[in-house]
Amino acid sequence: MSQDLAVAEAPAKVRKSDPKRRRGNRSGFTTGACAAAAARAATIGLVTGEVPASVVCRLPNGQEVAFAVTEPRVDAETAHAVIIKDAGDDPDATNGAHLTADVRCLRGLTGEIVLRGGSGVGVVTREGLGLEVGGPAINPVPCRNIADNVRAVAGALLDRDGLEVTISVPGGEEMAKKTLNARLGILGGISILGTTGIVRPYSTAAFRASVVQAVDVAASQGRQDIVFTTGGRSEKFAMRQLPELDEVCFVQMGDFVKVAFQTAIKRRLARIYVGAMAGKLTKMAQGLAVTHAWKAEVDRDLLADCAQQVGAPADLVEEIRAAETARFAAERLDALGLAVDFHRALARRAMRSLKTCYPGPYRLTMLVCDFEGQFIVRVNDEEGS
Prior knowledge:
The protein is an alpha/beta fold. It has helices spanning 31-48, 140-154, 157-160, 172-176, 181-184, 205-220, 232-241, 257-266, 278-285, 300-309, 314-322, 326-335, 339-357; strands at residues 28-29, 54-58, 64-68, 70-74, 78-84, 98-106, 113-117, 120-121, 123-124, 162-168, 186-187, 189-190, 198-199, 225-229, 250-252, 271-276, 363-369, 375-380.
């Protein structure tokens, strides 16, 4: 893919050796869709005396999908059904989870459907999630979808009685350790989620939503500081720099700069910290709303300008201008003892860009680390540009 230059003096291009990431394209189903299907199958079992081997469930997006049903059980008052979640090609901590529904008659409670969370479904302990504190972590759309599917097959049963639907997820507490639930105040299990019922492979929608949710939770707890980081390593680094802040203040925004800043500004947070390394700092300095590598390349001219600003030799400046990564610039300048000055210049560029793209009364601080998560420099907007 590289182009050879016919100019002898032009520096050779330095290219990343990693091949382009290959992504699957098979979609899957949300925990909410699987819970609704399990509830529908169990309700059919309660009505007919037999839980079906498969059930057609209507998803929140209106699509009708057939799910295989496992562990069918029925007695006089209750029915039990399980749907095993298939997340498709999406990397999902809940893939393979057994979404379990137990449906029980509530004698005399005509038409009522009561939804409860069982083992492995998280319990909400903090405000800001749009859910009742003390209640199960079952989001509003899945709640409605579960109730709609139960009502669709309950028939005359609801003319005289009500139904209690308990959703549980065996092993859900362990699965939740791979999510941000505990930080959001959801304890003891996973969340039942999904606005459409479909999980798109490598979908960004869920990540964006989690960023908004995390900021909302921090703001609802009365926090005035928020710390955006681009990943796990930069977050651990930022936590070491800001030990006085509660864990709820730290939000991994990943590549989603725009949604993170817009949400923080909307919630009127007083101070925003950004923890990042050279590559993402460069993308922020470019003014990109999404900093993923697939969205746009690193601006090598910007990196070269920063290097020149801090006194890098002219030949190195041109090498940086031809290189493919910010890491190349960072490592070469570090070898010359210019790492702090270079990263400070880059952080100031990023800060100016962020304040221009997302204006507001907040104070902004950039925390910069190297590729091992070690501190390089801190830049406050009070210092000016």
